[in-house]
Each structure stands twice: as C-alpha cells, then as structure tokens.
Request: fold
Amino acid sequence: AQKITQTQPGMFVQEKEAVTLDCTYDTSDQSYGLFWYKQPSSGEMIFLIYQGSYDEQNATEGRYSLNFQKARKSANLVISASQLGDSAMYFCAMREFGNQFYFGTGTSLTVIP
Amino acid sequence: NAGVTQTPKFQVLKTGQSMTLQCAQDMNHNSMYWYRQDPGMGLRLIYYSASEGTTDKGEVPNGYNVSRLNKREFSLRLESAAPSQTSVYFCASSKLDSSSPLHFGNGTRLTVT
Reply:
C-alpha cells in the first residue's frame, strides 16, 4: 500500500485565489510527522510546512496552512492568495518513527494570471 | 551556510560504467538519505543512514551501494550503470528529531546511455 497518496497530478488556480492540494497517508505509528515541499522548475526542494501527529492545531506558515484531519488520515496543503511564483510541483511527505521519509507522487500547480 | 552539497550536478555515463555521487552536509545532522526522482513517481528512497556507522536499504536499493564515510559525508555508488538508473538523484539530511524536515542538496542529473 502507498504510504502517501496525492490524487491530483495537476491543478490550476487563478492568481489571488486559494487552492487546496490533497494528501492522504497510511501509517500504524502513533507518532509521525507530515511535511510539504515545493519544487519549482529550477529543481530544488523547498520545505514549506510541518504538522506533528500530536499537534491539535493546524500548522500555518505565512500563506501556507495544513488542514490536518487525523481520523481521515489527510494532511491537505492550503495556499491562500496564490501568486505566480507558487507555480511548482508540491510533494507531501511523512516521517515515521524509523526515520524514513515517504513521499507522494506530487501535484503540479499552475497559477494563472 | 552551504547546507547539503552534492557533486556532480550533471553526469553522463555509458552502460556498465561506474561512478560515485558525493554528498556532504555541514548542519551536524545525524541522518542522511539518498533519493531518486523520476517523472510521475515522486521521490523514492534508495538508502539512508540514520546515524554514523549505520546504513539501511530503502525502497529501490538494487544496483546501488552507499558509504557513510563520517557524520558529514554519505556517498552513493553505481557499480555498473544501467539505462534504468537515468534519474535525478537527491541527497538529504535531517536531525533525528521526528519534527525535523529533510534538507536537500540541489540534485544530480544522471543520464545512462
């Protein structure tokens, strides 16, 4: 079974609108971490936001927030007020107790002016 | 801060040739990782080293070997390159803390002809 599932290969959003990128995960660990990364066309991997499995509040970092629904095992990334520079690949990842990080297949986001 | 440094950035090999990808981090991280990225498949873990002196196989270890030379350096070796190993390779490091993200190098684009 896939540890991380991202079901949206490609998404489009109008500039200044909000967009939600979906991520579901599969683990039997009680303690785990969820991460989102951005990969622009230049290729580097940029860490965006982290959510711990015991965190009761949804994580926020500037225009990024993580909609964490533990019972549904989902960790969706919400980008508010999209900008042209947000066009990139976005990867959801999970870190389990054993220190391995598992990645989804990514979502390509295009921001339309 | 250099962070995670990978060399080389680009490499072209002929089938059967060998090469070593070098990776070094200056953040005093315990854990280091090698991933490959292929279109539509996200990042897949090749090998990781939770701490100095240990290495473990990831999801796709066949055809690769690794060496954790010291706390800073983690190299990936292809003994006999195959076209299926054409990919972008990322080295990453992290603290052992479960809330710590991966810090990535800039990647190596490898083509095997």
In short: The first strand of chain B starts at residue 4 and ends at 7. The two ends of chain B are 36 Å apart (CA to CA).
